[in-house]
Every structure is written in structure tokens, then in C-alpha cells.
TrEMBL record:
<dbReference type="InterPro" id="IPR009709">
    <property type="entry name" value="DUF1290"/>
</dbReference>
<keyword id="KW-1003">Cell membrane</keyword>
<feature type="transmembrane region" description="Helical">
    <location>
        <begin position="56"/>
        <end position="74"/>
    </location>
</feature>
<keyword id="KW-0812">Transmembrane</keyword>
<keyword id="KW-0472">Membrane</keyword>
<feature type="transmembrane region" description="Helical">
    <location>
        <begin position="80"/>
        <end position="98"/>
    </location>
</feature>
<dbReference type="Pfam" id="PF06947">
    <property type="entry name" value="DUF1290"/>
</dbReference>
<feature type="transmembrane region" description="Helical">
    <location>
        <begin position="27"/>
        <end position="44"/>
    </location>
</feature>
<protein>
    <submittedName>
        <fullName>Small basic protein</fullName>
    </submittedName>
</protein>
<keyword id="KW-1133">Transmembrane helix</keyword>
<comment type="similarity">
    <text>Belongs to the sbp family.</text>
</comment>
<feature type="transmembrane region" description="Helical">
    <location>
        <begin position="5"/>
        <end position="21"/>
    </location>
</feature>
<dbReference type="GO" id="GO:0005886">
    <property type="term" value="C:plasma membrane"/>
</dbReference>
């Protein structure tokens, strides 16, 4: 439940506080947001299984975001679009986590 509350709080803050990300940092922000969303959905999935651990969630949240931003930075320095690897990996995991969450929620409805 904590990840969902954090997501809702972040969305509300993002809607009401105008914030502009410069074009030079847009790739870094994009992969960091995808990494964070992947962690939130993974945390929610773990919560549904009763396996949620705040240490694992926080280390994944910040670790994945930093690693994704580092990949984007290295790609910029090398002149290649290395951030696309992070976009693909996190995008894939987001859809997998969403599918798992959906299946778990549907099974919960069947149990009632």
C-alpha cells in the first residue's frame, strides 16, 4: 500500500507544481521515471504476495534510478543512445509487473 500512496502523492505534487525539465536532461529524467515506476509496481506486486520489504523497495527504487541515469550518461558520452536499453528493460518489467498485479487482483476477486 505504501508504493501506491507514494505514487498518488507524486502525481498530485506533479500536477500542482509546475516543473520544467530542460531538454538536455530529458533522457535522464525519462529513464529515472521508468525505473521508479518499475520499482513502485514491483513493490505493489510484492505487497499483494505478502513479501513486501521496505529495504528491498528503497534500494531498488534509488538503485535502479541511478543505474538507469548512469547508462544514459555513459551513452551520451559515447555518442550512442544507450538509454534505450534501460527504456526497453524497464518497459518490459513494467508490463510484466502490471500483468502479475492484474492476475493477483482478479484471483482475489474470485476468492470473495
Amino acid at each position: 500500500m505504501i508504493p501506491i500512496l507514494g505514487l498518488i502523492a507524486g502525481l498530485i505534487i506533479g500536477i500542482f507544481l509546475p516543473f520544467h525539465i530542460p531538454q538536455a536532461y530529458s533522457n535522464y529524467a525519462a529513464v529515472a521515471i521508468l525505473a521508479a515506476l518499475d520499482s513502485v509496481l514491483g513493490g505493489f506486486s510484492a505487497s499483494l504476495e505478502g513479501k513486501f520489504d521496505i529495504k528491498v523497495f528503497l534500494s531498488g527504487f534509488f538503485g535502479n534510478s541511478l543505474l538507469a541515469a548512469l547508462l544514459a550518461f555513459i551513452g551520451d558520452k559515447l555518442g550512442i543512445q544507450l538509454y534505450l536499453a534501460a527504456v526497453f528493460a524497464f518497459g518490459n518489467r513494467i508490463f510484466i509487473n502490471f500483468g502479475n498485479i492484474r492476475r493477483k487482483l482478479l484471483k482475489l476477486d474470485e476468492m470473495k
